[in-house]
């Protein structure tokens, strides 16, 4: 359990550091897809496994539903990262991440909005 917590902590710090580095270099105002690709690239440079636009089925009433659910980034097969580029965050984004964590069985997620003046203001950590 302690080893898993340490791994999540290392991944979390790498995600936050990468977001800050990207925001400092590019600033706000680009599309979500650009930030997503940059974040995946930055994490891979740090030798961290990252998968983008990971399809994830929903199990409902015993049926596997392929409804187009996609995780923006799955980091180290342990952390969900949802990337946003919105002027004003919406509570639905938080609900989306919470639901993704619940459905995947993962315990840690980050909601990252790049349309902020300071990168740290756009990073929200969620743990179940």
Structure overview:
β4 and β5 form a beta hairpin. This protein has a five-stranded mixed sheet, with helices on both faces. It has 128 residues and is an alpha+beta fold. It has a single domain, classed as Trna Endonuclease, Chain: A, domain 1, CATH 3.40.1350.
State the CATH architecture.
3-Layer(aba) Sandwich
Q: Give the domain tally.
A: 1
Mean pLDDT across all residues, rounded?
94
Radius of gyration: 14 Å
State the major sheet. 5 strands, mixed
- N→C terminal distance: 15 Å
Low-confidence stretches: none
Global structural class = alpha+beta
Shape: globular
User: What fold name stands as the CATH topology?
Assistant: Trna Endonuclease, Chain: A, domain 1
**Helix amount, in percent?**
40-55%
* SSE pattern: HHEEEEEHEE
Supply the CATH class.
Answer: Alpha Beta
Question: What does the secondary structure layout of this molecule look like, with pairings?
Answer:
Blueprint: H1 2-26, H2 32-45, E1 50-55, E2 58-60, E3 63-65, E4 70-75, E5 79-84, H3 91-104, E6 108-113, E7 123-127
Helix pairs in contact: 1-2
Name some characteristics of this structure.
alpha+beta; Trna Endonuclease, Chain: A, domain 1; two-stranded antiparallel ribbon
